[in-house]
Amino acid sequence: MDRAIPVPRTADLDGPFSWVDHGGPEGAPVVVAVHGLGGSHANWHDLAPLLTPTHRVLAVDLAGHGRTPRAGRSASVRANTALLGRFVEQVVAEPVVLMGNSMGAALSVLHAATSPEQVRGLALIGPALPRMRTDVPGRALAKQVALFAVPGIAERSLARRRSRLGAEAFVRATLELTCADPSTVSAGMRELAVQLMEERGNGPDAEQAHLEAARSLALLVTRSAAYRATLASLTAPGIVLQGRLDRLVPVSGVAQLAELQPGWTLHLLDGVGHVPQIEAPRRTADLLLPWLASLSLAPAPDVSGTGPTDLLAGAS
Prior knowledge:
- The chain is α/β, with parallel strands linked by helices.
- The chain has helices spanning 48-51, 77-92, 103-114, 139-148, 153-178, 187-199, 206-222, 224-233, 253-260, 276-279, 281-295, 310-314; strands at residues 7-12, 16-21, 30-34, 56-61, 96-101, 119-125, 238-243, 265-269.
- The chain has one domain: Rossmann fold (3-Layer(aba) Sandwich).
- The chain starts with 6 loop residues before the first strand and ends with a helix.
- Residues 29-281 form the AB hydrolase-1 domain.
- InterPro entries: AB_hydrolase_1, AB_hydrolase_fold.
């Protein structure tokens, strides 16, 4: 089967907002793919075409990422959750399945909690989860967290590193951090990620946007009680995929979800790191497709009561 050519699109949501339409059958359910911190629509390059035989897949670029500049907007978790919500409400204009990776999974959770009528289901891949007291970050993650905490110095350091390495080496270093085995990543995905970095479509303040998002994400996951309450309040059906070799999100966090959402489907993937959709797209699709098919048979969730919304205020 020939692969459909992804179509770049833009809308004005108080500034340029970019996404890629991967196509799908007319009238098919819509899956909105939401990338993680420092990512873009390129993160779905290999998985999206595997879902389009039965679903329409739209891969967004959040503010300060991909081809969406901040353009005077915030790149925080709170702001990008609102931006995602506007895209679903004003552009897609129908309930969707939110498929998010890492930070994108957290944004999907927050949007589903505040606007449950807009979300048919949640597919969370390597989701950023409430931090547990027993979590000990790895050396690479701890180093990044320490750097991000210093305003001004962090922005200059990140800009110098990107300039020194160049787009190709920077993408390679990112994949080495997020993937269990970077050699599994397709050449097409790598090339698209490099191209986007070289284009600098995310604007001249990309470093500031990245760090604003990182700091607000760190605040979100450390507000563990509020975040857990939000997860417990969700009414949408869910599926969670996490690599057993994830260096950024402790695998122990999946146990929280088993308690908070006992009806969700949980999968731990052997030999995979933080980005299963990049490292193992076929395996990821094989797990997602039956679950996606089941959504059309399930009764509509009860959205008469919404979950906690104050968590967004703290993730600004």
